[in-house]
Amino acid sequence: MLQLLCCRASITAPVRSLAVRQSTVRTPKPPGVALKFILGPAVLTVSARLFCHVAHCEADVNNNIPVEAVAKNPVPEFKWHILWEFVKPQLFALIGAVVLAFGAAILNIQIPLMLGELVNVVARHLREQTRNYVQEIRDPALKLLGLYGIQGLLTSGYIILLSRVGERVAADMRKTLFASLLRQDVAFFDANKTGQLVNRLTADIQEFKSSFKLVISQGLRSVTQTVGCFVSLYIISPKLTGLTVVVLPCLVGAGALIGSFLRKLSRLSQEQVMHFAQDLCYCTISCIRFEFYGLDKSCEINENLGTGIAVFQGMSNIALNCIVLGTIFAGGTLISRSEMSPGDLMSFLVASQTVQRSLASISILFGQMVRGLSSGARVFEYLALKPTIPLSGGGRIPYNSLTGRVDFTDISFSYPTRPGHQILKKFNLTLPPSKTVAIVGESGGGKSTVASLLERFYDPTSGVIMLDGLDIRTLDLAWFRGQVIGFINQEPVLFGSSVMENIRFGKPEATDAEVINAAKQANAHRFITGFPDGYNTVVGERGVTLSGGQKQRIAIARALIKNPSILVLDEATSALDAESERVVQEALDRATKGRTVLIIAHRLSTIQGADLICVMSDGRIVEAGTHLELLSKGGLYSDLIRRQRAEGKK
Ligand SMILES: Nc1ncnc2c1ncn2[C@@H]1O[C@H](COP(=O)(O)OP(=O)(O)OP(=O)(O)O)[C@@H](O)[C@H]1O
Questions:
Q1: Running DSSP on this structure, what letter comes out for residue 498?
Q2: Residue 611 and residue 435 in contact, taking contact as beta carbons nearer than 8 Å
Q3: 636 Cα: distance to centroid of ligand 1 (angstroms)
Q4: Against a cut of 0.90, is the pTM above it?
Q5: Which of 24, 82, 140, 549 is the most buried (most CB within 10 A)?
């Protein structure tokens, strides 16, 4: 699929032949891993983690965006209604996943309370030395075990469901985006880089899928757990919870201050790297010393940033440990006053750790969500694109009454990517039915542009192109390209399938007999049957296992199989050696009989038999006639002939 897209987007030739037919789940690194075992009142730890993480996160986000995009592209808007269209078919699975995740989160809230119960049993046993310890502990222990089991099952369940939803949504998005890209006209591929398109099909969709799964699963769990455990904390000990809430704003304030300083440093470092990357594009030897200075500066800022983060982590470690100590101290006081049991203290510490983990995970998820939304927005931007030249709709001319006469009337044209550069200026030309017209002229004069306009790869800026007196813009494009015009150019695009499939690409419903007949007309049958696998021979990627002349004859067969009324040959033999050219020319001579033919040629020797030869210069036709007429005129054409003969002798 991607190969097809690269093929379509990288050069116009493949685009033309196509146009004729028409998890790694990224788990965010937990910040402050060193603090893993700290049992601190969560809210307090979170502020530290949150701000520290934001600094990292910002650096990460920027690192993923190409310099060019950071500099120029505004982030497109995320369209929720488009996402809804993809999610709708998976709604049942999604609701199931949400319910299971919610259930798992509720059970997670119960676990600290159950642990507290267990500790109370142990403490009572120590205090009262009861003999039936096993009997007493069995029930709460089994309950806890059951809770762990159910929680595990629910977790597996929602992860399975969510990954199913994520994969299907991503696959649907990829298919729809690919189809949407294939519908675009050639001007779109002129303006957009292949890498960018492939990136949207792969990296952006992957990023969106990972974020989607992560945000729903962990987001739901974390929010539920945070709220639930907070309620538990309050129920266990309103006093301890109150203490926590008093300390919180101080820590959040300090964290915010240091966090904003670190973010500033991170931004500075990013800007430095960005400037370096941009400057490098234009850098000459003379400015290399300056660039080294830039690199040193960036290194210095990064070192400062590293030191800042390290100090921040160290300080938050100390703060968190002190808070655990403080909680145990305050809890111990409450226990000694019989206002709290040891089990309650245990529950408080475990619940607060759950809140701490959940809040830290929410802070990570926030960064992930921003990334996911911008990836999704980039994908949706291309999904919503409408081609300026629609592939279907419009009239058709019945085959029996189609004569194949083409008129270019007062055509002016500039490529959309270069609107100021006019290629054709009031260009006029008629291709009479069943006649061969050749266009010659200097390189870059606009000959291939005439063929592109006839194929409707672009529409003229002004003027009209008519088929049998009808403006081609009013005709059904799929019919026009698929049945009326056959196009053969210098670089035929073959796909890595069999010869049979490659020829059938011109007319998907063709029978084997039709394929063989087209191959015979194209002088290709003999060499194809000479292969051990005949028509089933696989031609290799882009036809690498065939010679230039063989590829060209398969392309001719592909064009002939649809029995087109008009044939466009754009430098069809110019890439071939003399022997291959002779064989291909023979095929072409046969193929052009009885059709309206437009030949664009470099080698003038190949078009001497044309009914009309037109010489192009400065965007219009300046001379026209047969070979002999033009020679006797002694104008531009005879000049070109003379020059080519002189070059041939060299
Ligand atoms: N896709 C495009 N976008 C912008 N400009 C283009 C595009 N394709 C061609 N051009 C420009 O249009 C002009 C005419 O190109 P065209 O290919 O029609 O010339 P040509 O006469 O066929 O040349 P040659 O004989 O070398 O094939 C050239 O200046 C070329 O640079």
A1: B
A2: yes
A3: 20
A4: no
A5: 549
Q: How far is CA 436 from CA 417, 439, 494, 635, in A?
A: 32, 10, 27, 22
Residue 110 CB-density burial (10 A; 0-12 exposed, 13-18 middle, 19+ buried) = middle
- What is the whole-number distance in angstroms between the Cα of residue 619 and the centre of ligand 1? 11
The DSSP bridge pattern shows strands 436-441 and 566-570 to be: unpaired
**CA–CA gap between residue 49 and residue 251 (Å, rounded):** 11
pLDDT band at residue 152, thresholds of 50, 70 and 90?
A: very high
In angstroms, rounded to a whole number, what is the distance separating the alpha carbons of residues 141 and 605? 95
**Which strand (E) or helix (H) includes residue 316?**
helix 288-336
Is residue 351 within 8 A of residue 112, CB to CB? The reply is yes
Q: What is the mean pLDDT of residues 508-527?
A: 88
What backbone torsions phi and psi does residue 136 show, to the nearest 5 degrees?
-70, -40
Judge contact between 330 and 244, C-beta under 8 A: no
Q: Which residue is listed with tokens 């002088």? A: 523
Mutate to test the pocket of ligand 1, among 417, 448, 459, 598 (most ligand atoms within 8 A of CB): 448
Amino acid present at 248: L
What is the DSSP code string of 219-264? HHHHHHHHHHHHHHHHHH-HHHHHHHHHHHHHHHHHHHHHHHHHHH
Position 145 scores a pLDDT of 92
- The conformation of residue 475, written as its DSSP 8-state character, comes to B
Closest residue by Cα to residue 45 from 56, 57, 33: 33
Bridge partners of 49? none
Ligand 1 centroid – CA 43 distance (Å): 65
* Cβ(111)–Cβ(141) below 8 Å: no
Place of tokens 């939304």: 373
State the ipTM, two decimals.
0.96
Tokens representing residue 615 in the block? 């010489």
Tokens 């291909």, residue?
584
600: left (phi > 0), else alpha (psi -120 to 50), else beta?
Answer: beta
Q: Which two tokens stand for residue 103?
A: 């259930």
Cβ of 446 below 6 Å from ligand 1: yes
Cα of 446 from ligand 1 centre, angstroms: 6
Q: How many residues does the chain have?
A: 650
Amino acid identity for residue 263 in this structure:
R
Tokens 């989607």 correspond to 212
Say how far apart CA 116 and CA 305 lie, in whole Å. 42
SS3 551: helix
Pocket test for ligand 1, best of 412, 423, 458, 614 (most atoms within 8 A of CB): 423
First to last CA, the chain: 46
pLDDT band at 290 (very low <50, low <70, confident <90, very high): low
Q: CA-to-CA distance for 455 and 314, rounded, in angstroms?
A: 68
Amino acid letter, residue 17: S
In one-letter notation, the amino acid at residue 318 is I
- pLDDT above 50 for 347: yes
Please tell me the predicted confidence (pLDDT) of residue 197: 80
Nearest C-alpha to atom 24 of ligand 1 is from which residue? 443
Ligand 1 centroid–CA 449 distance in Å is 6
Taking the C-alpha atoms of residue 16 and residue 27, their distance in angstroms, rounded to an integer, is 42
DSSP tag of 481: I
Structure tokens at 307: 């030191």
| CA gap 148, 517 in Å, rounded | 71
